[in-house]
Amino acid sequence: TNNPKSIIVIFGATGDLANRKLFPSIYRLYRNGKLSENFAVVGVARRPLTNEEFRNNVMKSVEQFQEDDIDHESFASHFYYNPFDATDLEHYQKLNSFLLELDDQYQTEGNRIFYLAMAPNFFGTIASNLKSEGLTSTNGWTRLVIEKPFGNNFETAKALNDQIREAFDEDQIYRIDHYLGKEMVQNIEVIRFANALFEPLWNNQYISNIQITSSEVLGVEDRGRYYESSGALRDMFQNHMLQMLALLAMEPPIKLTPDEIRSEKVKALRALRPVNEDEVDDYFVRGQYDRGIINDEEQIAYRESNAVDENSNTETFVAGKLLIDNFRWAGVPFYIRTGKRMEKKSTEIVIQFKDLPMNLYYDQGENIYPNLLVIHIQPYEGITLHLNAKKGDYGTTSTPIMLNYDNTQKDKMNTPEAYEVLLHDCMRGDSTNFTHWDEVALSWKFVDIISNHWESKAAKQFPNYESGSNGPKDSDALLEKDGYQWWSVL
Ligand code: BG6
Fold this sequence. Notes:
alpha/beta; eight-stranded mixed beta sheet; Glucose-6-phosphate 1-dehydrogenase; globular; glucose metabolism; oxidoreductase; binds 6-O-phosphono-beta-D-glucopyranose; 34% helix; six-stranded parallel beta sheet; 17 strands
């Protein structure tokens, strides 16, 4: 088989992401036969650790998996640790010699992934040093995987991009947006482009509005320092939410290649109508959570969290109305909302279809239920179609019914995790589910106008929603003034 052979160098190997996501994902790939024995992982970080200590961390992070035929120790034997100072060129040279040895030992054909899973301040430096010290010149391929945040606005993102582009070509750069690795996010395209039932209706003649919601129960936890300079707009909206929007709005690609798909997404983002600074309040709502009760537990307010300013102006909730000025979508609002410390953890997309021009089956002349297509991204995975059908009685009114497809795997073990899918794609050289620079640039340009406005004008009413609620009232008002409501389904 053509299982990828490569060395994966993880910068930030003692961090949260490596332990919580990357090691388990590598394990699952290994277990599922998606990795050959020809792989090695080199963890680098500041902390001085021995190989043995590092391997113990790795084993701890895969403890949850117990299969008879996989020996955790032999899995962990592929892992090596290298204490590292990102600013010291000598460290790069030593690392390079070590990688050459491993390449020999594991027959990885000179293939290398450099995965930057650490604080972003060194992204640029590391990329340049990797090149200047020769770590990117091998006889195989070399790829750079880079985590968010990719800049803090268009300007800083561009500076970072220019810097890494000096060392890597665009097609060697894999910008992670882990939402693109989620099974049901990848399903958006299939649902759209593999069903005669939907694609003909997927436009402004039949769709009245589209809603994308991603709510979390968790608050800022111990990430106050990062989050204070980010907020929900930069943390979730600029990347995950706009990526889902692009997948929902894009034209059918002519082929399923990374270039074709990404260029359709870019086109959709290009058609986003920019919100002018004086219109921000008409199209966007910001929120910040207050105290409240979730699952019988008292929650503290955002402003009371660690490393958060007691008068913080940072938003933990965003709702927005977006318009796409192209032939397909003119006039169809896309409503997007995301927030922390909300009622439940859930990501859902609702496509609301227009009412029929004349419907004979009004329920007592009152309610008529629109057809909805709901794509459940997480934690429940599935698709629900809301239809109307006859009630089982003598009347002639209709009743809403639901057709449901449950994608939640019975055998949880086999549901690929986002990072697992993305790592595998990267090793195979498939960049479809990574964000191209053009997408990043357009997303920042759209978002910058809103964040500039919010930063220049402190929110008067923060905190403005209770922990455990569905966000500020203004978020409901945003839809009500268009005659719609947020569908909170299932
Ligand atoms: C991350 C954000 O990108 O996504 C976090 O930085 C957020 O603040 C997380 O909690 C949500 O991801 P998921 O997969 O749990 O929906």
